[in-house]
From TrEMBL:
Region (Disordered) location: 1-24, 30-49, 69-95
Cellular compartment(s): Nucleus
Residue stretches making up the BHLH domain: 8-62
UniProt main location, coarse: nucleus
GO cellular component: RNA polymerase II transcription regulator complex
SUPFAM superfamilies, A to Z: HLH, helix-loop-helix DNA-binding domain (SSF47459)
Transmembrane region(s): none
Name of the protein in question: BHLH domain-containing protein
Biased composition (Polar residues): 30-44
Source organism (scientific name): Opuntia streptacantha (Prickly pear cactus)
Top-rank lineage group of the source organism: Eukaryota
Biased composition (Basic and acidic residues): 10-19, 69-83
GO molecular function, one term: protein dimerization activity
């Protein structure tokens, strides 16, 4: 190998390595942007190993949350179906929660039908509406036998950018 081929090969390796480092830097940046940050008390940026550690912990926490939600879902389903048989009400299949959302020019009407044991869904609907910056105008409910009927009226602010 002559000296010019040797320097050309070194330049190629340097370029390949530089591209690899840039790609890794971009991937780390993307990963870091997906993780909510608590913010450091000193205000200094986190080191790369700390960022990766934080992302790993966040993913593990999300996995635990998913497992907890699956268990909650399964327990709710099993409480609705004792001995694996689905409840029936007036000859029809009963769902523990029924939600109907009607939208008209930014006005929302949410109708929520739950069993008395599933009242927390009302709170969840209100929380979601607030998260989506909807103004809850009024909410009402009535109970018939073991079923609660909730009606929520909300106004959604729609920003249209042209």
């Amino acid at each position: 190998m002559n000296p010019s081929e040797s320097s050309s090969a070194k330049a190629d390796r340097k370029t390949i390595e530089k591209n690899r480092r840039n790609k890794m830097k971009n991937l780390y940046s993307q990963l870091n942007s997906l993780v909510p940050h608590q913010g450091s008390s000193s205000g200094e940026p986190m080191t790369l190993p700390d960022q990766i550690d934080e992302a790993t912990n966040y993913i593990k926490q999300l996995q635990m949350n998913v497992e907890e939600l699956k268990q909650t879902r399964d327990s709710l389903r099993s409480s609705d179906r004792p001995n694996g048989k689905s409840k029936s009400r007036r000859g029809s299949s009963y769902s523990p929660v029924q939600i109907d959302v009607t939208e008209n020019c930014g006005a929302l009407e949410v109708t929520l039908v739950t069993g008395l044991e599933c009242q927390f869904f009302f709170n969840e609907v209100i929380r979601i509406l607030h998260e989506e910056n909807a103004d809850v105008l009024n909410a009402s409910y009535s109970v018939v036998e073991d079923t609660a009927f909730h009606t929520i009226h909300a106004q959604v602010h729609i920003n249209i950018e042209l």
